[in-house]
Amino acid sequence: MATESQPFEWRIRVYYEDTDAQGVVYYANYFRYMERARTEWLRALGVNQAEMLNVQRRMFVVTESNAEFRSPARFNDEIVVTARLAGLTRATFDIEQNVYLQDLNGKLLVSGNIRAAFLNADNMRPMRVPADIFEGPH
Predict the structure, then answer these.
(1) Number of domains in the chain
(2) Is 103 a catalytic residue?
(3) Where are the alpha helices (DSSP H) in 45-134?
């Protein structure tokens, strides 16, 4: 398990629709950004989630999430959302996610952690996470 590796980076521009009445990113949107970064990270690792669900009948579900909001992003800011495997158990895995202003050396805006479970899609029971799923393209 490569928990010490560089995190996956996904860049996004903050749009007007992402902000609240005060002109800053509405807090719930950070969870949307993190979801998108996780999806792109898995895609970069070669995980085809549609095939996994529709053919293999396996799926990931978020079981826990938390975030510490440190500083706001604003309209038109460029942010970088990261995803990195932080831990792996038999049926769950932890993903460390951060949101930075402009690049990884920019201000840390949000730090978060997500726990996800690997399930059988037919009976919603936990399954063993495949050992090689986080090791790169399949």
Answers:
(1) 1
(2) no
(3) 49-54
